[in-house]
């Protein structure tokens, strides 16, 4: 008949299960039982079975990174970004980006910078010699105005155009190109001729030397300067009207 147990009662362990507790260590060793608590098997985290896989060079148990708490990983990341060599590398990169931005800005706005701050022209000129660019006065057509112009006969089949050109800006500007259009007049308003005149051409027409022309082209038209041009040219038909435009190609 099977044994029954009352509710709440506990069963006593059999003698064979606890007999090894009273046996001498020599008998336990002979039966294959561990006599030293330190010799009991220990399960290492992360499924590490061999001592080589769970112990580092100093003889300490190695814990896999996946078992590190989140705050430990965050502290390690902060410590890595705050290390001296990381800060030095980041500082060098920031300085390099700053210098590159300044050089790029100077390259794009070199003409305006040279006209606004003449003391920077030697430095900008050296940059252009290295990079192969050209330093010239800025092109600002909004600062140029024709104060007066007139056209009159200048001999047989010749006309002379007189123009008063002024720079009303605060900085020097490049010499503009001129476009002259001649019309027949009357009700037809027919175009007889159109001529585009480059700065070097109308400066030569004033009788200036090549050195003076080269200097003027490099410096541009100074702030508030008024330039009076006299341009003779030949025509094949009588013109009744004319128009002059300033532009930059």
Give an account of the 3D structure.
- The protein has 249 residues and is an alpha+beta fold.
- Among the domains are: 110-136, no CATH class; 141-247, Immunoglobulin-like, CATH 2.60.40.
- 34% of the residues lie in helices and 20% in strands.
- It has nine helices and six strands; from the N terminus they run H-H-H-H-H-H-H-E-E-E-E-H-H-E-E.
- The chain has helices spanning 15-18, 25-30, 51-54, 70-81, 84-108, 110-116, 121-131, 199-204, 210-219, and strands at 144-153, 158-167, 177-183, 191-197, 226-234, 241-247.
- A three-stranded antiparallel β-sheet has the order 1-2-5, with no helix packed on it. A three-stranded antiparallel β-sheet has the order 4-3-6.
- Strand 3 and strand 4 form a beta hairpin.
- The N and C termini lie far apart (118 Å).
Q: What labels describe this entry?
A:
three-stranded antiparallel β-sheet, 249 residues, alpha+beta
Brief write-up:
The chain is an alpha+beta fold. The chain is 34% helix and 20% strand. It has 9 helices and 6 strands.
